[in-house]
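Lab notes, practical 5.
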Amino acid sequence: MTVFPLFSSPVYVETYEIEDEDIQGIINEEYEEYPKKRDGAQSVNTQILQKYPRLHAICQEHTEKLCYDVLSIQDRVRPKIVCSWVNKHRQGERANRHGHSNSMFTGCLYVQCPPDCGNLMFEASYNHCTWTTGMIEPPVYEDTMLNSRVWQIVPERGMIAMFPNHVDHLTGYNESNDDRYSIGFNIMLEGDFSEKTRDLVIEIKHV
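Output from the prediction step:
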């Protein structure tokens, strides 16, 4: 049996070492509350990775791996991190379901995430067809990558996740006593997008 996961929305996940000095710097940043209650806070600085070159290098390295090694994008097109910010979630706070605009890929780097701080979750909207339209949901005896409309990843310190910007995502409630800190960032592509004109050849066979 062969099953092809056609037309997927790839989620890239890797874990990297983060310096304690950078973590302390992130904690000491200036924050402002999100408008919705229990949504947490965001750093005032929305170019936060420019302030932390080691963290920027981590995100840039894995952004290039996603583009070149995973998606086979030609190197005449370059990924660029266009903005970045810190999300701070205290006990009882979470990130609501959302997607990102003005970007091609979305990234998240977990800086501090104690146990039970809330999973990273992905959810297919009802207007996004997978193996089913979402209007019909037959019961399944096992949740798998092929039949699920919701998928969760347990975060850990230094985990980086990247995915297409249209993919809806959220984080669960922080049920720990410590704050969760993660860096969100948006990625665009720049460079030479030109394509040569392709000749359309039609072979006509006479019967």
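Observations recorded by the TA: The mean pLDDT is 90. The helical segments are 20-27, 53-70.
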